[in-house]
Amino acid sequence: MNFKSILAALFVAPLTLNAAPKTEPVDYVNPYIGNISHMLVPTFPTIQLPNSLMRIYPTRSEYTRELLNGLPMIVTNHREHSAFCLSVTQGSTLQPIISTNWDQEKITPYDYRVQIKDNTIDVHLAVCHQSAIYELSFQDPSKPATILLYSERGFVKANQKAVSSSQRLSHNMNIYFSGEFDVQPEQTGILKDGSITKSQETEGRDICVAVRFPAGTKKVSFRYGISLISAEQALKNLTREQGSAFNMAKVVADGRKEWNETLNNIMVQGGTEDEKTVLYTSYYRTFERPVCLSEDGRYFSAFDGKVHEDNGKPFYTDDWIWDTYRAAHPLRALIQPEKQENIIESYLRMAEQMGTKWMPTFPEMTGDTRRMNSNHGVSMVADALYKGLKVDAKRAFEYCRKGIEEKTLAPWCGDSAGYIDNFYKENGYIPALREGEKETDPNVSDFEKRQPVAVTLGTSYDEWCLSRIAEFMGDKELQQKYLKLSYNYRNVWNPDTKFFHPKDKDGKFIENFDYRFSGGIGARDAYDENNGWTYRWDVQHNFADLVHLMGGREELVRNLDQTFAESMGRGKREFYIQLPDQTGNMGQFTMANEPSLHIPYIYNYAGAPWKTQKRVRQCLKTWFRNDLMGIPGDEDGGGLTSFVVFSSIGFYPVTPGFPVYNIGSPLFSDIKVNVGNGKFFHIIAQNCSDENKYIQSATLNGKELNRPWITHEDVKNGATLVLKMGSRPNKEWGAVVGNEPPSAQKL
Q: Quick one: which of 197, 252, 546, 683 has the fewest CB in 10 Å?
């Protein structure tokens, strides 16, 4: 072999190895995608079984951080809070949390490996649903090793190999762990002033137990259970899941098996290895939240501070529904309907436990934080009912109605209705403040503002969802009442500019208003996190009426095209200082924030499905990639990635509450979605490729399909959709008036 051949072999061999096809779905998951953020919060490489309480991230704020602040034990609130900390050292200096450099990290959805302390200690962690196991191996066993277990506020107890602890999470909620080591320590005690004392228990703030192992110890295993009920229940959870033995291999194998069974609900052929990696990683992200709190048929609820029987229906929380109602909940309703039923029932229990019977808006482990705006739990209910899920419609309707009408619509507030709510009920919109006008409603946050257009649009959609639930119950009077209210978005429509425009209390549009930059930080004086170009399209339930308001199909398509073409208007620095959530730009379209997710599909409602096909592929290819910056904005536990899952396999739920899906342009030539009862929804995209992204013709179960949407019933019955793909658009397919996806009826 000559020199050039040797060089070629050196460069090609690694590429060949990296390109080797994976064999199982979990092998395609890359938890590092998005671990470096474009602007705000990155993704974290989550180690967790699907929707489980035991959820773990490495203890660093972003991938590029040099140090780990100890080793993780459990995340208690998605991407925000963790409890407890495990540190390990072979040095003489002891402190509750020991920072360390890290290297050779490898993460799968079910286990975590890393080398710390300049590669002198090997760490291996694997998880069950409510327990975990660590293996700590020492490259130089001649030195004694100390393991420290820290609680920010609570108690710690130690007894030779056994350790238990609690940590306060809120005014009425604690979390507990109980664990054990497989090696007999030479010293166990409470850490105080850098020394291990003889005391075996303490309580208070910043407390820590230290467990020292003698020189010659090569490996120590530590396993522990987690509970929100008690330390005793934590031990029961550990024993129930892991038995009596320390068996890392079994925990790893069981976790891998469960993830494969879960991810295997979507099976694809064709496409590239990177596209499969993005798909399955996105699907894995949708299982980060909500988390199941049930422990042996009981659960602790921070919504009333009590332990409840779950009566065979597991209790879930930690769900930022402003983000997840759009696609994550519909994805679960399609593929895991029983779990979705239990999640909705959990919401109803939360409403009851709070005493107000207001549907939660941002339920977390510590209670409902009422973040963001609107009350989109009603969307989750309406969508489920019309897809055949078992939901207590009467109970859900009342709790959703009360949340919308009795709680204030002021963003980030959980108080009773006040001035802006009374104004909305009388006038059908949230009034905006004129420049210099002082806030008069104490419910309104100084930072979050009224968000008048966003709240008006969001509440219009919520009231349409109420009308859908009323229709399901057979109450025509309530159906008509809320259907009429669902048109309130018209009250902030500016027919001259064809944008939704903030309007003051006197019914006058705010003057000198720039749809790109007016509204302050995050445009919150008018919208929320996004500017007027995004909220121009925020009428999820009635695009037929939006076509009418804009002056017809051609005008809507022209304005939609302009959204993708309109310049940012300023340099990126100036733009993102004001609108840090609005990253992932294509003109004024943002791929990074949830209110934009449906926008590429709106062409289907105006006779231009081929443009939806073009835009969907453009969005997926540009912004979702197999790399550390492969997510364009905040990935709120399935908020963005559920869009990727649906869009990659060719269809999307534009309007939760209608049991239909818009057709886009699948990335894969053969897709099977397990819809239960032994049935699969099968999509065959003939000749599908990067170039062949346009639908030429379609059949559904062998019959010609000339509309850009399918029904949930089609999917659940196990239909076969065949799409013939080509490199140039067929502009006639799906374009006939009357074949557009359904919208709310016109008044």
A: 197
